[in-house]
């Protein structure tokens, strides 16, 4: 970014960056809606979205493509916002839903629902997975993913626990959940194991409008809470004691922020399965460009999350179409090299 | 004006870290907190603005008991500068603006911006305003932290070893600024310092801590070789060179 000479100019350039991110998300979303086996032109997409399209494209867009893209945007915003918030709350660049046991917890819950409660299995013909009761799976995934956070927060409430030990506890709980999941799979029939594996791949096509609305409400509420506390985030970056000296109720804010973050991430993960890495890298990618000021970092990270998610999902759909690759694999596979590149290139970092 | 009465602090189930702490610092006065490592100096100043919550005692700032105020209101009366400040990726301007946090409802007002600009000017930081603080030198960073504390418009300034990472020139410059601010703004300053000669030069009052209690508290008259020897457990003599009192240890 150029070096502006006045503070107003400096702020303006940050706002401009956020605006550009917003435009980028809109464009890539439109492209994602138009791309696919039933070719739709961009004009058709826009016309249909505004209600002037033909019946066929309306069905394709409103029943298939749009829910998928909206899911990607909402989930991307949610995971990135939560990652961004947790990185400040725990003062740790590694903090995200996947390092705090939320993802592993969800996988355990889903396995439990499928294997023990019999909520799904692979078909005889081996061409698909039958999910008998998606809600049971989502509820179990949600409960067990929030469980790990509740344990961590409970420990830190009753005993003084540093942010570092909260992360360590998360890693420990992750491995516990992973072990429990493996054990359950070891004793399960292979058709059920296949269903579990399929669930954990992550899939944005599972969500209908009802699920999307639930996710949207949760994500919007969390974002508003975090945005409202943006000055607290900024104060917290200067150290816990300095933040207290600036009037931040550090303990309460950390507890509430972590709880809301986990609720949000658990909601998303229990609907779409495990999508790693977005919550971790989206904030870091924009941090290097826009700085650590949470007034601008939060919206920028949220938009970056949406961008990465839509791009990954579209890539997952198109690379070996008509087969849809698992989104979780794509985000990790494409995200890691991009992240490494930025870390070593030091874009926007210290000179 | 800050008045401390019967302050008591201990960590959970632990031995008392501070007890029977009574002292007051008038407006415009600079008080040095002296003592060995582990004497409770940092704990003491952290108790004053409730970074640590004392179990007993009263801390009055202008007649209000700080220990019963909301944290945000405490931040309007007392500003604190930590010993180690992490150079985060924030501009100088944004860092000083953070000092307005206790007053900001949703967004900073024009008044907040004006105040930040005037503090930056006063600390002669205009040329750095848009630099990132992780790119500053130790002396510059310390001035930025002071500027942030001043933006809080406090009545009491708490400084934990403000000169510990600075070179000779910056040590004098920073303490000169602190003393000047205390006098002109009528702020009470409580600072922890290890360099006795700097303390003798820039502070009006001296609070000597030993074994979790105040050993003695008073003006320059308490800085006798006997008292200092007692506190630091090393024999010293106090000499006067060109009208400046200096402490010389002999081993």
Mean pLDDT, all residues of chain A? 85
Largest interface: A-B, 26 and 39 residues
CATH class group of chain B: Alpha Beta
The CATH topology label of chain A is ABC transporter involved in vitamin B12 uptake, BtuC
- Kindly provide the radius of gyration of chain B, computed on alpha-carbon positions and rounded to a whole number of angstroms: 18 Å
Strand order across the biggest sheet of chain A? 1-2
Quaternary structure: heterodimer
Question: Could you give the topology of this structure?
Answer:
The complex is a heterodimer of chains A (351) and B (251).
Chain A: H1 7-34, H2 42-49, H3 55-89, H4 102-116, E1 120-122, E2 129-131, H5 134-158, H6 163-186, H7 190-200, H8 209-228, H9 230-237, H10 240-245, H11 250-272, H12 278-290, H13 294-318, H14 327-345
Antiparallel strand pairs in A: 1-2
Helix pairs in contact in A: 1-2, 1-3, 1-13, 2-3, 3-8, 3-11, 3-12, 3-13, 4-5, 4-6, 4-7, 4-11, 5-6, 5-11, 8-11, 12-13, 12-14, 13-14
Chain B: E1 2-10, E2 16-25, E3 30-34, H1 41-48, E4 56-61, E5 64-65, H2 71-77, E6 78-81, H3 92-98, H4 110-122, H5 138-151, E7 156-160, H6 168-185, E8 188-192, H7 196-202, E9 205-210, E10 213-218, H8 225-232, E11 236-241, E12 244-249
Parallel strand pairs in B: 3-8, 3-9, 6-7, 7-8
Antiparallel strand pairs in B: 1-2, 1-4, 4-5, 9-10, 11-12
Helix pairs in contact in B: 3-5, 4-5, 5-6
Notes on the structure:
- The complex is a heterodimer of chains A (351) and B (251).
- By secondary structure, chain A is mostly helical.
- Chain A has a single domain, classed as ABC transporter involved in vitamin B12 uptake, BtuC (Orthogonal Bundle).
- Helix content of chain A is 74%, strand content 2%.
- In chain A, a hairpin with a 6-residue loop joins strand 1 and strand 2.
- In chain A, helix 3 runs antiparallel to helix 11 and helix 5 runs antiparallel to helix 6.
- The longest helix of chain A is centred in the first third of the chain and has 35 residues.
- Chain A is globular, with a radius of gyration of 21 Å.
- The two termini of chain A are 13 Å apart.
- The C terminus of chain A is likely disordered.
- By secondary structure, chain B is an alpha/beta fold.
- Chain B has one domain: P-loop containing nucleotide triphosphate hydrolases (Rossmann fold, 3-Layer(aba) Sandwich).
- Helices cover 33% and strands 28% of the residues of chain B.
- In chain B, the strands form 3 sheets. Chain B has a 6-stranded mixed β-sheet with strand order 6-7-8-3-9-10, sandwiched between helices.
- In chain B, helix 3 runs parallel beside helix 5, helix 4 runs antiparallel to helix 5 and helix 5 runs parallel beside helix 6.
- Chain B is globular, with a radius of gyration of 18 Å.
- The termini of chain B are far apart.
- Classes of the chains: A mainly alpha (351), B alpha/beta (251).
- Chains A and B meet through helix 9 and helix 10 of A and helix 2, strand 6 and helix 3 of B.
